[in-house]
Amino acid sequence: MNIIVLVKQVPDTETKIKISGDKKSIEKTDVKWVINPYDEFAIEQALKTKEQLKAGSVTVVSMGPDRVVESLRTAIAMGADNAVHVKTDQPLDSYLVGKTLAEVVKKESGQLVFTGKQGIDDDQAATFGFVAEFLNWPSASMVVKCEIAADKITVQREVEGGTRFVLQMPAPAVIAVDKGINTPRYASLPGIMKAKKKEIKTYSMSDLGMASEAIKTVSADYALPPERQAGKKLSGDAASQAKELVRLLREEAKVI
Amino acid sequence: MIDFKLTEEQVALKETVRKFVQSEIIPNAHRFDATSEFPHEIIRKAWENGLMNPAVPEKIGGLGLGILEDVIMNEEMGAGCLGMTTSIAVNTLALYPILIGGTDEQIKHWITPFLNEPKLASFCLTEPGAGSDAGGLSLHAKDEGSHFILNGSKMWITNAGHAELFTVFATTNKELRSKGTVCLAVPAKTPGISLGKHEDKMGQRCSDTRAITFENVKIPKENMIGNIGDGFKIALKTLDKTRTPIAAGAVGAARAALEYSTKYSKERKQFNQSISNFQGIQFMLADMATKVEAGRLLCYQAAWALDSDQHKLGSYYASLAKRFSADMAMEVATDAVQIYGGYGYTKEYPVEKIMRDVKLVQIYEGTSQIQRVVIARHLLED
Asked: How far is C-alpha A87 from the geometric centre of its chain's CA atoms?
């Protein structure tokens, strides 16, 4: 089975995010770029699936400027067999990414797609759906368990409240995984040395027939969350403190 | 032009080791320090991810990494737990003598098993009466033609209780001093070898440290690495390669002490404000940071010289790096405890462990005083 993993490169979760002057993007200098953590689960799930099937290959695909190659090499160091870079410096949205990546899946004869349920940067949780739609494949997201037997895929989704919901679908399909599905392995040192020598396939947008495609949404405004207010210290005896606390919870915080 | 930029692979391996340290080493460091148990499981995982035996050449299936890579790895591991770092890294020390002095056949025979399984090896140089005077070995290797008979003992041998192979330095004739020394590959299970107890140490408590006694231990001549008279040279060449990574472990520990105390100084309030507002604390942090960076640069310089085969300069730089990094880590860890105040003196907080752990770096693999002797000898030679 040719398994494809769609990987997004995102700012490290510890990055101090700064908004650019025009408020339409974030400052990209000084950002440490990493593989989207949900996509790490997807890579691990793909590797596990290949190991379980004892056949097939895992191809990681990422879209963006030259720097995304680093993330592809990390994925190879984790154990992926091949990597594809869709090289573009243009602004992207979920539609364009989804449509382009669907083309890559076709070109690479993908038979199963894993990806993270969302990117931790924009949190749109949309790419998997676009890809599935453009491929006309079934899909499931927020997957915490995935079993593959012959042509049947059985997945469990986490539903709010902690219950699980089981879905079945035929392959090929797009599976968007959630935290908890597995523990991603490390990019091992032998893997890193191997990844250094691996050739990474590059497509341009026009190689994929996407030259005339454009984004359908633009990011209009970014704002940082409001700074946390300092806490309030109540004084007086226990009874008056309790009274004041209830009043504040009701009138200021409006939680009761 | 001077360039401190690491290659893409070096950055990647630093990243992997850092992740490994955060997920596997830091959460367990306190427990293993308290119990002084040997961290088998963590060592196995380190091996699985290629963190052990980095210097084994590619031609027999290793990674063939240089001293700089070893330095990068040890700094990261040292920032997690120096005891585990020592136990993970000591294979490199134990296998170098074979890589340096062994024939192709010996290298293949003795080293390959370490690539196939998470096996451990120990470097056996120090003796009860031969520490800084490492040339004054007493462990006797009696030459009996086809084999040697070993009698005597070794002291402070890291991982001895769990190792399958010992690289042993012995003397065929004590009168000849270093000219009588031999290096032997000795399987740990050889009859006549007995181990002392796991020493109850001040720091680096989870690394296994024991005495070894040799009583009529018969070792075939084909186990000899190099020739009679080569032992001491092989030991020194080995230590030239490992001294800098050891120094880097101390840099990592000092870096951790700095990071912990920087964070704590912002949280700890006295006189209605964070103690980080006080210049007294700020100056301490600034000095600690300067020392950590200086230690790292000395390590990088030594690694660069050793990796570019400037052996003589490399050996000198390695002594500078080890001398400075060990002493500075002790100073930085002491200051970290000071910034934490009374809390820092308790085991509830991580800095007292660092202070106990780094003390050993001033002692093992050449004390800070011996490093000064080496440095001075280089300065004064004609």
From this structure: 18
Query: Within a 10 A sphere around the Cβ of A202, how many other Cβ atoms?
Result: 13
Closest CA to B239 of B126, B154, B366, B137: B366
User: What is the secondary structure of B19-86 as a DSSP string?
Assistant: HHIIIIIHHHHHHHHHH----HHHHHHHHHTT-S-TTS-GGGTS----HHHHHHHHHHHHTT-HHHHH
**Cα distance between residue B199 and residue A20, in whole Å:** 58
Q: Any idea which of A10-19, B47-56, B103-112, B315-324 has the lowest mean pLDDT?
A: A10-19
Q: Which amino acid is at B207?
A: S
CB pairs under 8 A between A and B: 40
* Cβ count within 10 A of residue B262: 16
For tokens 């993007």, what's the residue?
Answer: A25
Catalytic residue among B24, B127, B352, B365: B365
Cα B99 from Cα B123, distance rounded (Å): 13
Contact B9 A193 (CB under 8 A): yes
- Numbered residues of chain A with Cβ closer than 8 Å to any chain B Cβ: 70, 73-74, 77, 186-193, 195-196
Confidence class of residue A14 from pLDDT cuts 50, 70 and 90?
confident
pLDDT at A176 over 90: yes
pLDDT on residue B308 = 92
Residue B210 token pair? 């024991």
Mean pLDDT, residues A220-249 = 88
Q: What is the pLDDT of residue A256?
A: 81
Residue B140 amino acid letter:
H
**Residue of chain A whose alpha carbon sits nearest to that of B12:** A192
Q: How far is CA B51 from CA B92, B118, B180, in A?
A: 11, 11, 35
B50 → closest Cβ in A70, A73, A188: A188
Kindly report the CATH number that applies to the domain delimited by B232-380. Answer: 1.20.140.10
B365 catalytic per annotation: yes
- Segments of chain A assigned to CATH 3.40.50.620: 2-208
Q: What is the pLDDT of residues B101-145, one digit of tens each?
A: 999 999 999 999 999 999 999 999 999 998 888 888 999 999 999
Nearest CA distance, A188 vs chain B (angstrom): 4
β strands within A150-223, DSSP E: 152-158, 164-170, 174-177, 201-204
Residue A186: its chain B contacts at CB < 8 A? 16, 19-20, 49
Chain A residues within an 8 Å CB radius of B9: 192-193, 196
Contact predicate B44/B86, CB 8 Å: no
Contact A192 B20 (CB under 8 A): no
The answer to whether B63 contacts A187, with C-beta atoms less than 8 Å apart, is no
Domain A2-208 listed as CATH 3.40.1190.10: no
**Which amino acid does the sequence have at A227?**
E
pLDDT (tens digit per residue) in B323-343: 999 999 999 999 999 999 999
Query: B8-116 is classed in which CATH architecture?
Result: Orthogonal Bundle (1.10)
Residue spans per domain, chain B: 8-116, 121-229, 232-380
| Assigned superfamily of B121-229 | Butyryl-CoA Dehydrogenase, subunit A, domain 2 (2.40.110.10)
Q: Which amino acid is at B362?
A: Q
Query: Over 90: is that where the pLDDT of B225 sits?
Result: yes
Q: What is the ipTM of this complex?
A: 0.86
- Averaged pLDDT of chain A: 93
Chain B: closest CA distance from residue A68 (Å):
13
| pLDDT tens digits for range A28-61 | 888 999 999 999 999 999 999 999 999 999 999 9
